[in-house]
Amino acid sequence: MSTDTSHKHASKFMSLVLRHEPEKIGLQLDAQGWADVDDLLQRMADHGVALDRPTLQVVVETNDKQRFALSDDGLRIRASQGHSIQVDLGLEALQPPAWLYHGTVARFVGAIREQGLRPGERQHVHLSLDRQTAHQVGARRGAPVILSVNAGRMHADGHVFHRSANGVWLTTHVPPQYIAG
Ligand code: HQG
Fold this sequence. Notes:
By secondary structure, this protein is of the alpha+beta class.
């Protein structure tokens, strides 16, 4: 495996256990989603994904979307967003920019126009700051369709927004009336 490929493999495994299935390797996350770094590394090694502490640092620092955050003392790690398990990231409520963007694919658009954007398996609907990022998010599933979300009006109407440590805007539901083409 090239270094890049092995880092990507480690990152995907870390996304799985830090966002969705910590029990897969018997890992404990606290209420804010943090895991003990040494425990994570030991359990990853036991499951065939061995990396040392300096390499973990590199994986975290070079991750294309900055998906992971280390605590200030370096002893704990968590995913910055994208969880399906219940965690409280402790993010403050913020005023969003006037418009945010959501990348999806044509086959979901009918349901989205009817029900609005729903978080699905995750805790939050994920919204991007710019169309280019939304394009990349949608392109994971096919030809991307980009929806514009009137976040300014949502916020004025009392909807709560957060921004993850890696710059993804989060809210719990975007009703259809706030979605433009
Ligand atoms: C769609 C990646 C039917 C929604 C990305 C999306 C992001 C609906 C899918 C992050 C719907 C959910 C999140 C409705 C929404 N009816 N379909 N009412 N409402 N959908 O993966 O936003 O690489 O949970 O359009 O870059 O695609 O993992 O959300 O297609 O930041 O770090 O249901 O995941 O980041 O899919 O992606 P997801 P997402 P990572």
